[in-house]
């Protein structure tokens, strides 16, 4: 007999404190709806890593993501208890989250997730939640778990397979005080709830030994889905077929006198006599291509969750008009790369490739654009069949002209958000890779990164060919450059940067970093592993970024290196990079030793934001000697420690972080410095009681002197700006909080030729 295990309940405050709301913002996709639940007046939709709800009285749609306190883990199911006004969210890793809808307090219940006892981590998924008599019955991949709603603690765990071994429980229901559990491999198991010893597997019996996928109680009888795609109702213990749709059922639920069955392309609603009263085909929804995932009913409305387009709402009595419920957001959570324009517009791409630079299977996810707080999602069908789009480059002279790099189809040009040209082997200097012995293969044009030089020429990194460096001249002519002299063989390409000297820095999969400048007799240098070859920790280079002091920061799959000046390329035959040595507890250590670095971004104060493959985000000082901040899923709203890309809005200082499970931003203060003090502004102003953040003074010049005094002239703060913004924590030099009153801010440039005075009111 298996004994039940104890499950610990951890209560934590939500992330959404006053100060954190000011610092963080979530940009999540709500397209992929995993499950639905409802109350009398609200719909709850569980998406991949976030939630949204609709209030039927006000039509307001509210979103919930990691900035509000969710975990960022993949959501598997959702259940709303109308009696308690609490919503329970189950996850693939066993985490259970409880949301008090009245207070929006979030409670993380980690007992299933953190349970050991021989349960593999990949066997803790929560499949279904069922409420009965002040208890939740939680169907998991290893057993059935009880949760008591009277005190919000876990109770027993029922290993109800015929041998008491772990078994995947898919769904449960209760009829006539008997609990029925559908298992993956052991049929439907049942037991009387009056038995106080259900932890003993011998007290469970097999109700039906077939292969079932779901079960509900409806009209005082059991209804179940079989693996043969047929719905059966049980007359006693005998199953009688009700409906066969010829495709797997994904969801079955009863709501009052209605039974709702969902398959990928069909939702069927039946009455108590099992007559079909409504059938909705996915093809009947105009202008949308949707795969259904779940459906439910509230009053006279049907709500259908989809895999691509949020929730579709229609009428139960006249299902011919459809409304899409979809909060604004990007197409997908797993954003591969970001681009932020000088005006603050953000572009997101979803095409990707493996660690071996293999883009297969090819993606058709389109592009997303965020401008003036509005998302525009451009589908693949409008992008001239450009697959696996990995980067976006915006014209430096016209933000309405955009070039999107496809890691298969070539280079796509968009004007005013409309695709106009696809550059490929037929109309440009771009080339397809060639597979020896397979002359019919292709075209396969691997364009990773493009970048404009200061003369308006667009350079492209064209991988797996000898002439991997291409340029589209400002006059419309294409030209190629052969870099094979420094390569051991043809290599896959990663990112590319262009410095002030017009030197191109090309990152490669296994050949290190290649530097090229056509203006210096086509000078070509390779930096790779080995003390005499460049001193990189790995030949797999992910990124190379020029900072505000013309140093080149190089991120590889095994650590970080710096080239002290990009000017060295102009005079030296071999370039050698340096590691950054820091003191850690008095011991000399190499900064980010062995870390898989995915991206490096430089903010307005020349601080470095470095993303990693599994350790979150680091912010380092300009020289790397100080760790200013580190963000992970534990101490921040990051939904994942897998960082895909980082981009910074130089005007506002907002740091956009794309992870494998969603995008968030951190509203930092390292903005680009202004040329003068005409646009200095202070926020928030006034500082109201209870405010826990900092006062920002923005619009500064580089090295501006900022002094803050009280109304009587007593100095309480002074700082020299690095970028365009500084922060004041409303203390007198960090000693104590200043009193209520008006405070004067005196600002001057470093040469004292330009000055301005601002005021801020503090209310305690």
By CATH, the topology of the domain at 333-482 is Methylamine Dehydrogenase, Chain H
Radius of gyration: 30 Å
Termini, distance in Å?
A: 62 Å
Helix content: under 10%
Helix/strand class: mainly beta
Shape: globular
Quaternary structure type: single chain
Q: How many DSSP H or I helices? A: 2
CATH architecture annotation of the domain at 333-482: 7 Propeller
Largest sheet: 4 strands, antiparallel
* CATH homologous superfamily grouping of the domain at 333-482: YVTN repeat-like/Quinoprotein amine dehydrogenase
Number of strands: 64
Mean pLDDT: 93
Widest sheet: strand ordering? 1-57-56-55
Extract low-pLDDT stretches: 1-21
**How much strand content do the residues show?**
over 45%
Keywords: Signal
Domain PorZ N-terminal beta-propeller: 43-204
Protein name: PorZ N-terminal beta-propeller domain-containing protein
InterPro entries: PorZ_N, Reg_prop, Secre_tail, WD40/YVTN_repeat-like_dom_sf
How does this model look, in words?
With 764 residues, the protein is an all-beta fold. Among the domains are: 34-110, Beta Barrel (Thrombin, subunit H), CATH 2.40.10; 333-482, YVTN repeat-like/Quinoprotein amine dehydrogenase (Methylamine Dehydrogenase, Chain H), CATH 2.130.10.10; 681-762, Immunoglobulin-like. It is built from two helices and 64 strands. Mean pLDDT is 93; it is low at 1-21. It comes from Flavobacterium lacus.
Question: How do the strands and helices of this protein lay out in sequence?
Answer:
Elements: H1 18-23, E1 24-27, E2 33-38, E3 42-47, E4 51-55, E5 61-64, E6 75-81, E7 86-91, E8 96-100, E9 105-109, H2 111-114, E10 126-132, E11 135-140, E12 144-148, E13 153-158, E14 169-175, E15 178-183, E16 188-192, E17 205-208, E18 212-218, E19 221-226, E20 230-235, E21 238-244, E22 249-255, E23 258-263, E24 266-270, E25 276-281, E26 292-298, E27 301-306, E28 311-315, E29 323-325, E30 337-340, E31 346-349, E32 367-371, E33 374-378, E34 389-394, E35 401-406, E36 410-415, E37 418-423, E38 447-452, E39 458-462, E40 469-472, E41 478-481, E42 493-498, E43 504-508, E44 513-517, E45 523-527, E46 541-546, E47 552-556, E48 559-563, E49 581-584, E50 587-590, E51 597-602, E52 608-612, E53 617-620, E54 627-631, E55 643-648, E56 654-659, E57 662-667, E58 681-683, E59 695-698, E60 705-710, E61 715-720, E62 725-728, E63 741-748, E64 755-762
Antiparallel strand pairs: 1-57, 2-3, 3-4, 4-5, 6-7, 7-8, 8-9, 10-11, 11-12, 12-13, 14-15, 15-16, 16-17, 18-19, 19-20, 20-21, 22-23, 23-24, 24-25, 26-27, 27-28, 28-29, 30-31, 31-32, 32-33, 34-35, 35-36, 36-37, 38-39, 39-40, 40-41, 42-43, 43-44, 44-45, 46-47, 47-48, 49-50, 51-52, 52-53, 53-54, ...
